Amino acid sequence: MWLTWRAATEQALYGENGFYLRERPSGHFRTSVGASPVFAEAVLRELVAVDDALGSPPALDLVDVGAGEGGLASRVLAAAPPGLRSRLRVTGVDLADRPARLPGEIGWAAAVPDGICGLVVANEWLDNVPLDVAEQTADGPRLVLVDPSDGAERLGDRPQEADLAWLDRWWPMRETGERAEIGRPRDEAWASVIVRLARGRAIAIDYAHPVDGRPPYGTLTGYRDGAIAAPVPDGSCDITAHVALDACAAAGERAGAVTTALTTQRQALRALGVTGSRPPVDLARTDPRGYLQALARASQEAELIAPEGLGGFGWLAQDRFCS
């Protein structure tokens, strides 16, 4: 059975007994949330800044899109000061069932709620929004079809006109054999978040590439048990592809975002106080335990902002009706 990559991935990840409905993400790949509680602390600082910009409304939303096991929402809630926590409405959004140990204060939904006033965080969500793959031929772009049972591929029809227009604008292919991942479904997914943001900020964090630096043969990858695997859409592994965050940013602006900042996780976290600075050596003499704790924290911070790793992720922040 031959399917487009988008249809095959949708079935493999989110269909009956799909990968994300069956597996714990932390068992297959490492994210910023799992790497260190420092990430949640930084998100809390961002939440406080949004709260201040909104004038401390009676109810402040934190919406974690692609919440997985609920780690980010739980840590931010636990670290929030009492005055903020009493006003917080925390919602995890995921197609998987609500985690058994999630605090009762955290809501759980399969879709992004309407009328959000506060902060939306989508950490490594867009890369798992299924998309189609196109290959350039002598006659123009053709869709790549895949056999879900073994990952074998063959070429199919031309992409639809809307996808051809997206390719022309955001991922032009120049040579026969080049491939592109058609990010229009991700643009639509991100726009659907922005339109549900009444007042506040939405942040998407993901591995990304710019329009002038797209990889010529795409980024489609599988992950299983913490290691890279062949991207076979049979439900046995995660299937992911880098995100054209610049295209998502443009879609967000069309959906009503009034400000846009597209940077890296390294730059964003450094602005939030995550520097990776090591403690002074003298502290080892005066406070050995404190020195070891500070050294461990510095190591965690360094992982989050490492430019060749998590720090190289794209960080898209867009505001709507938020000064």
UniProtKB/TrEMBL annotation:
Coiled-coil ranges (or none): none
Domain of life: Bacteria
Keywords noted in UniProt: Methyltransferase, Transferase
InterPro entries found in the cross-reference section: NDUFAF7, NDUFAF7_sf, SAM-dependent_MTases_sf
GO-annotated biological processes: methylation
Record flagged with keyword Methyltransferase: yes
GO MF annotation, one: protein-arginine omega-N symmetric methyltransferase activity
PANTHER family, sorted: PROTEIN ARGININE METHYLTRANSFERASE NDUFAF7, MITOCHONDRIAL
Protein name: SAM-dependent MidA family methyltransferase
Lineage per the UniProt record: Bacteria, Bacillati, Actinomycetota, Actinomycetes, Streptosporangiales
